Amino acid sequence: MSAGVLVTLAMALAFAATHIFVGKLRFLDRTPRSKWLSFAGGVAVGYVFMHVLPELGAHAATFETATGFDATLAEGLVYTLALAGLALFYGLERALAASTGQRMEQEGRDRPHHGVFWLHIAASSLLILVITYLLSHREDTSPLGLVLYFAAMLLHFVTADFGSRTDHPELYDAKGRWVLVAATLGGWALGRVVELPEIAIGCLFAFLAGGVMLLVLKEELPENRRSFFLPFLGGAVLYAGLVLAETYHVSA
Predict the structure, then answer these.
(1) Residues 180-206: b if buried by 16+ CB within 10 A, e if exposed
(2) Is residue 47 part of a domain?
(3) Has residue 212 been placed in a domain?
(4) Angle formed by the axes of helices 114-133 and 3-21, to 10°?
(5) Distances from the Cα of 49 to the Cαs of 78, 182, 212, in angstroms?
(6) Per the UniProt record, which residue ranges are transmembrane (predicted)?
(7) Does any domain span residue 245?
(8) Which domain holds residue 194?
(9) pLDDT in tens, 99-120
């Protein structure tokens, strides 16, 4: 294996370890919300604004070239895919909340129905598959860009997995986390053996962008999270500063 392949494999294994061991991070499970989760949320929001949105613009140019559409229509298609990803995950989050509320009323159990939970895990697995595939097929191919992508996604997985486990810890610990691990390693393996056309990668990235935007804001913004603003701001500012430093270094 080349050094680059070993690096992306190590990153995929770190993602997998997050899925497996998030339940062991007891310091995250507290009210008010752990400052570390607020910091992770800030980094993820920084990733959305400093990487995701600019890269959507870059993929719009790919759409324009591949389809022959004019620039405005191509850009609209990219953002429509991002909106579809956001809408899908918003619908799943609402279904989880409705199922949990219904089960609480009927059975006195603060858990969603199994089918709804597994639908959420399936959608999360699809998102994870795309994230790990893109370890090997990203618009920004610089080493620092890869490190920043890895750091942002690792912290995103911490907050997202913590939320999923909170919804149904028994199912998550028994089977759910292993489904996420399989999606993680499967996405990395696909990235090594399958090279999709640029327009397909653009579609995947746009869908990923919408899902990540929704999940980041869902985990950090609700009032009942009782989040911390300063750690959130610190994470966002730190990530933005690193991206600006990378941009300056590349252009210098």
Answers:
(1) bbebbbbbbebbeeeeeebeebbbbbb
(2) yes
(3) yes
(4) 160
(5) 16, 29, 11
(6) 6-24, 36-53, 73-92, 113-134, 146-164, 176-193, 199-217, 229-250
(7) yes
(8) 36-251
(9) 888 888 887 777 888 888 899 8
| Cα angle 119-53-17, degrees, rounded to a multiple of 5 | 45
In the block, residue with structure tokens 């919408």:
210
Tokens of 91: 């619908």
Residues with Cβ < 8 Å from 120, sequence gap 6 or more? 92, 93, 95, 96, 112, 164, 167
Does position 155 have pLDDT exceeding 90, yes or no? no
| Confidence at residue 244, expressed as pLDDT on a 0 to 100 scale | 84
pLDDT at 229 over 60: yes
Residues near 42 by Cβ (< 8 Å), separated by ≥ 6? 220, 231, 232, 233, 234, 235, 236, 237, 238, 239
Total number of domains constituting the chain = 1
Burial of 140 (0-12, 13-18, 19+ CB in 10 A): middle
- Round to whole Å and give the CA distance between 135 and 46: 19
- The sign one gets for the Cα dihedral 120, 162, 10, 213 is positive
Query: What letter represents residue 39's amino acid?
Result: F
Q: Is the pLDDT of residue 122 over 80?
A: yes
Highest-pLDDT range among 40-44, 115-119, 196-200, 225-229: 115-119
Closest C-alpha among 211, 117, 218 to residue 169: 117
18 in a domain, yes or no?
no
Percent share of the chain, pLDDT over 90 = 17
Taking the CA of residue 147 as centre, how many other CA atoms within 13 Å lie in the half-sphere pointing to its CB?
7
Amino acid found at 90: Y
